[in-house]
Batch of 2 targets.
Target 1
Amino acid sequence: MTAASRAPGSGNRRGSTPNNSSQHPPAETPQTNHQSTTESSYRTYTRKAKGHADKVYTYATKAAPLWVWGIVFAIVGGIVSMQVGWLGDLIGWLGLICLVISAWRFLTNSLVNTWAVIASFMSLVALIVLGMLFFQSAHIYASAGRAIAPESGLINLHNLGAEIFKGFPILGWLVGLSLRGLAGVVRGLELTAFGLLGVMIYVIIQSGEVMPVILKASPETLQRLIKTLQKFKKVEVSNNESATVRELASIHNNYYESLIDALGWWRCICYAVDFVVCLWFAPWIVGGWSNFDQMAGWENANWPNIIRGLISVVFFEVAVRLWIIARKGVYLFGKK
């Protein structure tokens, strides 16, 4: 076969220069090698920094929730700002960021749809209404304290130290506003030392009235109660034991059940005491019950006392039940 009859490209390639570009990649230049090393070091450093930050965050959240750290940073920022303004502002803003992140996580973890948002909003409204109802009905017990010890002077708390938080960034203004509002509530109740004692008794009475309802409001609380009752080991005694042993065993076996039953009895007692106090210290007739024979129609009715008495005995628990219904909506429509 002649050289001319050979196919193109099939001839002797001994003299041709081989094309090695597809077999061997170009050698890395020092600049490229340095760049890849820098990127690798940066990724390693970023990964380690993120790992340390995650550890710090884990330890911090185990010690206290994020919103607690937000409040702590806000207080520390206000104190530091008295000496070093910029540092105090920085710490205060850090506290605000913690609170914002905590609120955002609550919204994203619990309120995942429109109905959950509505239920949460209604829960907040119910809490505000509860505060207003408490303020109105607490007047009865504050006036009871003043009537028992009329010589006792009024408690003057000024603004509860709201001026201290003037230098706090943003959160200081909110804390100061809350303290001034609380001081306004104290002035509105016209509290004396005995009046304050009366309000504390009112808190105990209202707690006794609504505690059985609140215990049954949360699935977590119910599950905890059920698990506690199931884990409790009861004592088995035979009929051959003495009556004293059988009685002690019965008391032991009904230890927790008796507490729950006692809450029902305590609820009835609290309602009875509340009703008597409202009738005695907040009479429904202008001038007191001594003017009952002079009452002609509703002209002499003491409507503020009537409303406050109904709030204390009836409507406060109604508001608590409405709050529980709203919280059930949050549990139902939220992730939890």
Target 2
Amino acid sequence: MTEHLKEHPEEQLLADGYRKYHGSAFDVYYHKDICIHSGKCVRGNPTVFEVGRRPWVIPDNGQKEQVAQVIQSCPSGALKFIQRGEN
């Protein structure tokens, strides 16, 4: 990874095909082609992650720490998290 990409993780995620879901304090990124549909996200926080809703990810429906924990439990790496001010 180049220095530019280390300093701009959002740009890297978007270039890699992740879709951004904007929140007021943090953003969630999702890559549909990486997802293995384990369901850990929807079981971990169904108010943030709900497949029957559009958009299916609403970051502001959850607390930052709890959403970060759910994203870290994603077995495929299809979900990423960036706190505002970090990118």
